[in-house]
Design a protein that fits this description.
Length: 272
């Protein structure tokens, strides 16, 4: 297909095309109980998965940044009135505005996401993605582990943000041999299912300001990191807060759970 289009994968766009039909079918079959809700696919590429998704939805919107592939996709779906092909940069796209324009009360997201934009894009989708119900994202395995498993060094602001907005899970692994060109590492399909309500109570902005500050100096203890941040309070202040929250004074941010951070944020609010 690429040779017919006289198209070479573009490194700048992070293009690694999924060419394993079995994997494409497995991804498509993971979409169940969609109730014909709209689907937005990020990085539709050659349209292999797009064609599998089409019967599952009343409307399919395809985002693509490669001009040659835009023409290819419009050719494939030229007679499908329920398909919109959009020339758009996934990081710059206004998902909230688009869903309001389309009058989507809810929708699902799929994306084969380049590694170099994974963290920024997932964060944007979580916060500013509009009324999404699920995100099913094909990412490098390392990124999936970092976002979903959130253990030790993998724990960080993005994994905690994902836990706040969604129930994250890894559906299955994808071998690097399933792509062209073959990347250096394997990938995984992860799904983020939106929570109906926040898993913890408290001020979200204050919570994530604390989380960001806590992870700003990973090698230091949390008390030292917070004392060195713009957030008020010296080391002894934060050590007292950790102690009163039942946490070790020498704890590091990566050992903290979402609930731990919330308890500390609430303590800070009551002791400022």
């Amino acid at each position: 297909m690429l040779s017919e289009l006289k198209k070479n994968p573009t490194k700048k766009l992070g293009q690694n095309f999924l060419i394993d039909e079995k994997v494409v079918n497995k991804i498509a079959s993971s979409f169940i109980d969609l109730d014909n809700a709209p689907i937005l696919e990020i990085g539709a590429g050659l349209g292999a998965l797009s064609q599998q998704l089409l019967p599952l939805t009343d409307h399919l919107s395809l985002l693509e940044l490669d001009q040659k592939l835009i023409g290819h996709l419009r050719g494939i779906f030229c007679e499908e009135h329920s398909v919109s092909v959009l020339y758009a940069d996934a990081l710059g796209f206004d998902y909230q505005q688009y869903t309001e324009k389309m009058q989507w009360a809810q929708y699902h997201i799929f994306g084969n996401i380049p590694y170099n934009i994974t963290s920024d894009l997932v964060e944007k989708l979580l916060i500013y993605g509009g009324p999404w119900l699920t995100m099913t994202l094909l990412v490098q395995r390392e990124a999936a582990n970092r976002i979903v498993l959130a253990r030790g060094r993998d724990n960080g602001p993005l994994s905690l943000l994902a836990q706040y907005y969604a129930q994250p899970e890894i559906l299955f692994q994808v071998s690097k041999s399933s792509f062209y060109p073959v990347p250096s590492v394997d990938s995984a399909v992860m799904r983020l299912t939106r929570r109906l309500a926040a898993p913890v109570e408290g001020d979200k902005d204050e919570l994530f300001a604390l989380i960001k500050a806590g992870f700003s100096l990973r090698r230091k203890t949390l008390a030292n990191a917070l004392a060195a941040s713009p957030i008020s309070g010296d080391k002894s202040y934060w050590e007292r807060g950790l102690d009163e929250c039942g946490l070790l004074a020498a704890i590091r941010a990566e050992a903290m759970t979402l609930t731990d951070f919330l308890n500390l944020a609430n303590w800070q609010k009551n002791n400022s």
